[in-house]
Amino acid sequence: MIVAGQARRTIWPAAEADAVYVIDQRSLPHHWQELRLTDIAEVHQAIRAMAVRGAPLIGATAAYGLALQCRHEATDAALQAAKAFLDGARPTAVNLAWATQRMIDRLATVPVEARCDAAWAEAGAIADEDVAANEAIGEHGLALLREIAAKKPAGAPLQVLTHCNAGWLATVDWGTALAPVYKAQAAGLAVHVWVDETRPRNQGASLTAWELGQQGVPFTLVADNAGGHLMQRGQVDLVIVGADRVAANGDVCNKIGTYLKALAAHDNGVPFHVAMPLSTFDAALADGVAGIPIEERDARELTHVAGLDGKGELVEVQLAPAGCPAANPAFDVTPARLVSGLITERGRCRAEAGALRSISGAA
Ligand code: MRU
Hints:
Elements: E1 2-3, E2 6-7, E3 11-13, E4 20-23, E5 34-37, H1 40-48, H2 55-70, H3 76-87, H4 94-107, H5 115-149, E6 158-162, H6 179-187, E7 191-196, H7 203-215, E8 219-222, H8 227-232, E9 238-241, E10 245-247, E11 252-255, H9 258-268, E12 272-275, E13 281-282, H10 288-291, H11 300-303, E14 304-308, E15 314-318, E16 331-334, E17 341-344, E18 347-349, H12 353-360
Parallel strand pairs: 6-7, 6-9, 7-8, 9-12, 10-13, 12-17
Antiparallel strand pairs: 1-2, 3-4, 4-5, 10-11, 11-16, 14-15, 17-18
Helix pairs in contact: 1-2, 2-3, 2-4, 2-5, 3-4, 4-5, 5-6
Bound molecules: 5-S-methyl-1-O-phosphono-5-thio-D-ribulose.
């Protein structure tokens, strides 16, 4: 996507194949900062600390982490240990373990001494395929947006509500939930996006608002609690969110607060769609509500908030009383019955076991 007039991806390899560069998303929207990651420990830390975040992007970053590991030791044992280390960085989004497993499977077919080059190429393929998948999600989602827009008075912009950041910053490019919005913009279909702030880390306020602004898409930031009210007033035509893991039964795990939006959408007859590359589908997990591990993050994300002070410095301030007990589950699971449909790179399908089996080709 375009940042300050330049086409960018969120991750790019060094020409010497000895490092990978990412945008430090903790500094956005205030500062543009790039990180150069040179080994698996730095990759793990960037994922764990959410310098990179978003399910598809952490998968691609972890793939490069294994490629960097190959420069030090590329034996089967070293790669398995590296995979376990990386997978533990963030447990909920299945794209991470999917990408590291794909790297392991590919490298198992290559002699140890040739693994560096093969790993670098495979990580690049994972990144490129993510871009292609998300662009295809954009095309399939655009068809859905056109169907819903056709039922509105001519000229009225389509009102989309989204939660968290499932835009290009959460992927290698295009995004998942926002890819249809970018395709609509390019096709001349008028769209306006309601952006949930997304407490506690505010990925909506800081990242979605920033990237929509960069692309020139009209949007309005709203408090997380405003969505039900907007839907009741007829101001939301559809909800589109991303996903961190979709189980075989169609249950969808996404950023905490997504479930409440699905409930409000259901109560108000607003379509609730989930955009997901098939790397987010966990065919081995039967039941999402029961089985998806939910990452518990530091309570400080809740008790403190970061932003610019009057001098333009990034600072963190305390919101809650000192020592306040706080719990911080980072994701929730929306049961399949509340999901109107899934948008994948292979087309749209129902959030249901048979439909998911057939679109994914899973056994
Ligand atoms: O904790 P984060 O910021 O990594 O959470 C991201 C989300 O929940 C996204 O909505 C999800 O990964 C889908 S991204 C295309």
